[in-house]
């Protein structure tokens, strides 16, 4: 046996059975042993070397700490004035007194210096590797009537890893095609990018002029297939056409959600109705963004779970039905009234429409991925959408199928405007599908 020198505990230490394990374990829990450790004793500090193989003494380097602080401001989207906050300066005075917290002006200069260094490294990569890149660009106008353009470069490096870099976010003279084309040409020269495979744009007419300009500017033979329509944007246009048919149930549900969320009192009452209705859901109702159909899908999907809660709320709040009947425009002749609370038929439409929209929602998420290649599945995805719209437009497959049939027919018309003629589609869509080994197997079978 062995006795602890601090707490006199008797420990087994037979080499055949216990060994030294009992001594080590007791060392971790012996309170008196820890009590004898001097509280003022300093602990060794260390850091791992850059190659990760060695433990080296830690050194305070003001420049590295300043750079790390600047990167924290960028990564966490903090305002420059954060560096001058009293609470942060008090924390740093205790955590690292040697670090002189910079002012917001100095922080701005540090961030610009990091940006210029990262830009130079990325430009060097483009020039030396001579990578073929795919570009995506979009333009929009701010509230101050200023036109902006964002340019993103996608490429595959020597390690077969997909790289995505936002290389510019700049002011442009306007939304005219030639202006956008000249800005693109200037940016490509600035970055040293010579080999461009495709430029993905939305369906704005100015982009056709921009692509024509870029085809003249780029001298490689592949520029004939330069223009690529954004799949997610076309899906958005197709679904928006369908939503116009289903506007009345959607608008009544949206109005009901707005009413409930208009004040904390109403929202608290709705939460009580949720409990009374025994609705099991971790989330709560949210309003959608009218221009984003995927947010409308999420709104309808969530609201459908609270159908009984809305019915319970109508019994609890007498103003609910009265106020909603006043909300919205006067109905036109031969058109349904959009006013009032959601009806039983509205919830039936939503349940069926939700299943229909879910295909497009999942497809949009899939083609919008930036951490994996998506081009090889475009052809299959486009074909699936065409088949599904054909099924819905040719057959009545719901309780009140005429509405859904009309909706699918309108969506199919919009779909065929962009993808109805294979001759007008970018040939890279077919080439990427052919090069996918999974499709080769299916073709052989």
Choose one word for the global shape: extended
- The Cα radius of gyration reads 31 Å
User: Which whole number gives the mean pLDDT?
Assistant: 82
Query: Main β-sheet, in a few words?
Result: 5 strands, mixed
List the strand order in the largest sheet. 7-6-5-8-9
Number of helices: 18
Overall structural domain count: 4
Number of strands: 9
Describe this structure in words.
- It is a single chain.
- The protein is of the alpha/beta class.
- Helix content is 54%, strand content 11%.
- It has 18 helices and 9 strands.
- Helix 3 (62-75) crosses helix 5 (104-129) and helix 11 (293-305) crosses helix 14 (344-367).
- It starts with a strand and ends with a helix.
- It comes from Aegilops tauschii subsp. strangulata (Goatgrass).
- Residues 322-342 are annotated as: Disordered.
- One of its GO terms (molecular function) is DNA binding.
- Keywords: DNA-binding.
Question: What descriptors fit this protein?
Answer:
extended; single chain; 445 residues; DNA binding; alpha/beta; Nucleotidyltransferase, domain 5; 4 domains; two-stranded antiparallel sheet; 5-stranded mixed β-sheet; hAT-like transposase RNase-H fold domain-containing protein; hAT-like_transposase_RNase-H; RNaseH-like_sf
